Each structure stands twice: as structure tokens, then as C-alpha cells.
Amino acid sequence: TEEVLNCIGCGAQIQTEDKDAPGYVQPSTLKKYLEDDSKELLCKRCFRLRNYNEITDVNIDDDEFLKLLDSISSKKGLIVNVIDIFDYEGSVIPGLQRFVGDKNILVVGNKLDLLPHSVNQNKLLNWIQQKSKENGIKSVDQIMVSAEKGTNIDKLMELIEKYRHGQDVYVVGTTNTGKSTLINKIISENSDIKDLITTSRFPGTTLDRIDIPLDDGHFLIDTPGIIHKYQLAHYLNEQELKAVTPKKQLHPSTFQLRDGQTIFVAGLARFDFLDEKSNVIFYVNQGLLLHRTKTINADEFYQKHLGELLNPPYDVTEFPKLKKEEFTSHQKSDIVIYGLGWVTIPANCKVRVFVPEGVSVSIRDAII
Ligand code: GDP
User: Fold this and answer.
1) Which of 3, 57, 270, 349 could form a disulfide with 180 if both were Cys (CB 3.0 to 4.6 A apart)?
2) 139 close to ligand 1 (CB < 6 Angstrom)
């Protein structure tokens, strides 16, 4: 029988098959260890953390994640839930509150740097709070940060101090929300942590988690990212995802539309205008094609040009069919296509939106 090996850093079972799963080591590393087991065996993630002070994300599925949450349900502490403000629906963890019991949840909306300056941040925070409520999450507070630019990280640390009541902090989030970037930022901005992290490790835990020491004997704990099937990202390959994900601040693209006109957002979404002449503003990644056509020809146009003029997707074989949904605005509103961006429409306006099956769309009060 084969011996089960565990990483001495995080306790994950060592494996050489899946780079993105816990416990991965390169086959050559494992071979070296088996030849000379006087050395320490660290998974790739712990190795990078120890040697480069850098967190890399590993992914686990819903079941494993729930087990992980269950294992902390009886412990005290603060939950920091990182979400992507461009993809709330893709970032929310259903049932989170139920699984973490009465622990406080602090919701952190990441990627603030992508929002245009004219955004009313309070409105967006209110929206995040309302969305949390709809998902059963009783957030004690919410804050928006940019992990990449370092914006509001100090304020976040203050909130964490305020709400953790001297207990551990568990950072949870779905993949791609920027959880690793955020934790790396926290590590790099806190020199005490940086010194500690290379030396003090907690071997023998069975959780696939990384413990970052705080200054009072408690820890900031990075949990693996959970994969979410509602993310647009789920339907795109790496290259397509690159084309969709904004890297820079979003700029408005305004169209004057009337009844019978359609805008394609590349091959990813379709927007039919069903009302009198109005200005409609698209907020999506700058390189993405916005193509106007007549609604009457739109079906045929899509079939003919998907994967070509209308790209991404580049690979259409596994791309889901578009499904439609209609919205009527009572006040100036945003139609939010999760993972892609949003479209601002005036009050009392009717529109039809098509998105890949499985991707969510919703309407909110305009944030600009
Ligand atoms: P994780 O899977 O949640 O750990 O996410 P990562 O930290 O790997 O980040 C996912 C993607 O989001 C990467 O492409 C990051 O560059 C990007 N990202 C992370 N934080 C920010 C941010 O504050 N602003 C922007 N624009 N992108 C970010």
C-alpha cells in the first residue's frame, strides 16, 4: 500500500495530478523527497508562501468547502468574505451565514479601481448590503477596496480589528475575486507579518488553509477558493477571460437607441431596446466589441458571426446558448450582467437582455 504524505505546511494530502488543487507538488519534487526524506515536504502553495511570501489560490469544490466551513463553525472569529464588485452573483457563497453560525461577516468588495470616478460609492455599498441580505448574509459591515492598487487596505485592517474582538479571522471567497492578491497586499504592507510568516508555520492541521499570524497570537486564515458555476468565467477559456476581464477603469460607451435596435456585446450578450429613443450607456471592458444591428436580423446575425466578428467566444463549440430576460426600469437603472459589466438605462424603459444560460442578470438603481 502507498503511504499517504501530507504537506508539513498546511496538512493537505500530497498529490501530483492537479496544479490548482491543494497539496500539489511537481512529480520531480516528490521523487527527490522520496529519495531523501530528511528534507521537508511542502506543497507548491506553502513552498511559495515560505520562500516568496506569496499566497497562491487553490480551488476546492462545494462539498469540500462546506466541510471546511463546518470545521470552523464552532470556533470563534470573524469571517471576511471577499467578493468581486463586477461579479456579485459569481462571488456570493450561498448559505454562507448558515455554515458560519453566529460569526460576524465582513463583506469586502474588491476591484474598486475598475469603477469610473463618477460612481456613487455609497449607492454601491448599499447595493452590496442589500444583495448580502437577499442571500441571507447578515454583514456587520461592508467596504470596497482595491487589492491590486492597495486602496482602503488600511481601512479594511481597522474594520477587521474592530470586528474580530481579539479572535481569528477567516478569509473566504470564490476563485477570481482577488482573495490572494488581497492577502498578499496585507502581508506586504505589514512588515511584522512578513517576518513571521517565513518562520512560524503550523504543521499537522488537516485543513487546506494558510495561517498568517496577527500580533496577538491569533491568525488571519486564508481558506481555499471555492469554484462557482454561475461565473461567466466558467464558460470561457483563459484567452477569452482575458478579453472580458477589465484591467483598467471602465469608460462609458453611449449609444442612442430606439425600438428595434440591438447591441451585441461581442458574442457574450445581446441587448434589445424596446422603447422610445434614449441614451443607453455600456460599462464593459474597453476592448470588447459593441455592435449595433437591427433586432429583426439579430438572431440570424448572431448565428452567422458568433466566434468570428462576434468574439469572444473564440471557441463556440461548448459555448452555452443565450437565454433572454426582460426588464422595465422605474428609475434610472443598471442592468448588471455578472462578470461582464453593466448597462445604464433611463427611467421607464423596457429592454430585453440575452446572456449565456447559467449566467445571471439583474437590475439595480443606477450607481452613476
Ligand atoms: P483569487 O482566485 O480569488 O485568489 O484571485 P486572484 O488574487 O488570483 O485574482 C484574480 C484576478 O483578479 C487576477 O487577474 C488579478 O490580477 C485580478 N485582481 C485582483 N485584485 C484586483 C483589484 O483590486 N483590481 C483589479 N482590477 N484586478 C484585481
Assistant:
1) 57
2) no
